[in-house]
Write a structure and sequence with these properties.
single chain; mainly alpha; 2 domains; two-stranded antiparallel sheet; 12 helices; 2 strands; 62% helix
């Protein structure tokens, strides 16, 4: 009974204090200060985590890695070191990897996670090409044991928060690539190879070309279009699983326009580095095919996609309207890079 009476006395005392206008005013001011402080901290964190990492020179990056690990730079070292650095950047940039975060303030951010997914797509495509083509002399040869681990690891769910988190799986992929890189640079071993052949470069470019083509279509759909159905490419004998209309209305939902924009920006950011690395590793074959200028033109077009966006939001004006349309501008650069990539493939496929 004494304990119950004591608790009641505490409750009455609190009520009396809250009833005092001066005390109530202090509590309100404290709550306002705490709320303002939280808003300022979250704003600072959002601005800090919303920064895109700076570009790096793939050749200088490879030299630095080789010096730190006391390894020898051989054919393929620069490209492999570049994809490792891209993956590490994805995990260790300001704020870390945000795509699977479930806590504020990163859960409120969508631009960076879409940028991350764009980078991840290029890492996945390159890891697949490295495993299936570039590291193998022919289709019947054995695949590299570490690349067989790395490639599926990067294809793990990008939004897995727990059991296991995405970062842990991607780190396993990075570790496998680093083991491959170590064996690749070892002059005393021939278990790891990187074949800088024209057909291998052309096969990877074919994958990149499809990615860029898809991005270009999704970006231009920001204004809505009525497109002629070309699925069967005019082949009278061709068939498809289900019948589709002769004309298709394509329009990106308004809330997804900035998502597509930043995904495209991430794709291009990663691709710039990979193409520069390929320029170094495939320099001999590119000069022989007279294709070096074509590759550099592709890189220049893609670098334009990384220009600063001065608007606080991604604008979606009509094609020739009063307001800008950032998606159409991005699509223009990507389409031009894609067209140059087709020409580059033609040069590589010539004898």
């Amino acid at each position: 009974m004494a304990l119950k009476q004591h608790i009641q006395n505490i409750g009455w005392r609190i009520q009396d204090e809250l009833g005092d206008p001066a005390t109530r005013s202090k509590i309100i001011k404290a709550a306002q200060f705490i709320t303002l402080f939280i808003i300022v901290i979250f704003t600072f964190l959002i601005l800090w985590m919303n920064r895109v990492p700076n570009q790096f020179d793939p050749v200088e990056n490879a030299i630095q890695i080789a010096n730190n690990k006391q390894q020898t730079i051989v054919t393929g070292y620069t490209s492999t070191a570049t994809v490792i650095t891209l993956a590490n950047t994805l995990l260790h940039k300001p704020g870390g990897y945000l795509s699977n975060d479930v806590s504020p303030p990163s859960i409120w951010m969508d631009n960076v996670p879409n940028w991350e997914f764009g980078v991840l797509v290029q890492i996945r495509d390159f890891a697949r090409a490295l495993r299936n083509d570039i590291s193998r002399s022919q289709s019947q040869s054995l695949e590299d044991e570490d690349l067989a681990i790395a490639e599926p690891q990067f294809n793990f769910n990008s939004e897995s928060w727990l059991f296991p988190p995405s970062e842990h799986e991607y780190q396993k992929g990075i570790d496998a690539l680093e083991r491959y890189l170590s064996r690749l640079s070892d002059d005393n071993k021939d278990t790891a190879q990187f074949y800088a052949r024209a057909d291998n470069l052309a096969d990877w470019l074919a994958i990149v070309q499809k990615r860029l083509g898809s991005l270009s279509q999704r970006l231009t759909a920001s204004v809505g279009q009525i497109r002629i159905n070309t699925d069967l490419a005019g082949d009278a004998a061709a068939q498809q699983s289900t019948t589709t209309a002769a004309e298709i209305v394509v329009k990106t939902p308004w809330l997804q326009i900035d998502d597509v924009f930043y995904e495209a920006r991430g794709n291009c950011w990663a691709l710039i580095h990979l193409l520069k690395a390929m320029e170094y590793d495939f320099s001999t074959i590119l000069k022989k095919k007279n294709a070096l200028v074509s590759l550099r033109q592709i890189i220049r077009e893609l670098e334009s996609t990384q220009d600063t966006v001065w608007s606080p939001i991604i604008l979606n004006g009509s094609g020739f309207g009063m307001r800008a349309n950032h998606s159409l501008v991005m699509a223009s650069y990507i389409a031009r890079a894609n067209a140059a990539m087709i020409d580059l493939q033609a040069l590589l496929n010539r004898g």
